[in-house]
Amino acid sequence: MKMALMAAQSPAAQAALTELNGMFDTVPVEEADILVALGGDGYMLQAMHTSIQLQKPVYGMNRGTVGFLMNGYGAKDLPGRLARAEAVRLNTLHMRAFTENGDTAEAYAINEVSLFRETRQAAKLRIMIDGVQRMESLTCDGVIVSTPAGSTAYNLSAHGPIVPIDAGVLALTPISPFRPRRWRGALLPQHATLEFEVLESAKRPVSAVADATEIRDVRRVVVSEDRTRYATVLFDPEHDLEERILKEQFTS
């Protein structure tokens, strides 16, 4: 089993990289069977996008803060931990964004696709689900389409629901909704296609973000799950992602 090490630039991650390089034989990411990512959840998200491109599984060890997507750090018996690790498949969201100047951009997200207002003016959005208008106008700071894996990230901070990994749904969550003020969002089938039309876009410009990829001045955004493009994430048996998401629903 050939492994490659990837590390964030933080002092803790770089120290772990030095320690592991001194203990184990490693190879470049292109030659590896498994990618080992050292850092926090933000860096793990970057590593997962790399793993998708290379079609290799990724095993994260926490050298950041929260480390929700990470295993605990430990240099001892790392090859054995990799051999015992259990795989979780995380499907991506596909975003197509149509801009005001007529361009079309595509990007993929493991956690979420978000639309944000760009100025002091609130965004105004029309929401279509599978070609049916479900909300004529939502005035808000933005909106989030979250995968189950991303439901405990920005979606949760915006008061969206935590979604179990195998629930088969996507979470649609508004960010600071003004009208309708009491709308809390929706849970949608994972096969649903979501379309957002930006209303009054010249006055209320909006950007669309798929994980770390931002497209500014969009007029229409289409989001759907792409089950052919996914990350394979490895977890220690006692720290599987499904259990972590379940526990998160019972924390204060």
3D structure, described in words:
The chain has helices at 11-23, 41-54, 78-84, 154-157, 241-248; strands at 3-7, 34-39, 58-62, 86-99, 104-109, 112-117, 123-129, 132-140, 142-146, 169-175, 186-189, 194-198, 206-210, 213-215, 218-235. With 252 residues, it is α+β, with helices and mostly antiparallel strands. The protein has two domains: 3-84, 3-Layer(aba) Sandwich (Rossmann fold), CATH 3.40.50; 92-228, Probable inorganic polyphosphate/atp-NAD kinase, domain 2 (Tumour Suppressor Smad4, Sandwich), CATH 2.60.200.30. The strands form two sheets. Strands 1, 2, 3, 4, 5, 7, 8, 12 and 15 form a nine-stranded mixed sheet that branches. Strands 11-10-9-6-13-14 form a six-stranded antiparallel sheet, with no helix packed on it. It is elongated and about 60 Å long. The model has no long low-confidence stretch (mean pLDDT 94).
Per DSSP, the total helix count is: 5
Helix content: 10-25%
CATH architecture of the largest domain: Sandwich
**Biggest sheet layout:** 9 strands, mixed
Shape: elongated
State the CATH topology of the largest domain. Tumour Suppressor Smad4
Level-1 CATH class name of the largest domain: Mainly Beta
What's the SSE pattern? EHEHEHEEEEEEHEEEEEEH
Helix/strand structural class: alpha+beta
Number of individual domains: 2
Report, as a whole number of angstroms, the end-to-end distance.
Answer: 41 Å
- Count of individual beta strands: 15
Low-confidence stretches: none
Q: Can you tell me the CATH superfamily of the largest domain?
A: Probable inorganic polyphosphate/atp-NAD kinase, domain 2
Q: Output mean pLDDT.
A: 94
How big is the Rg?
Answer: 19 Å
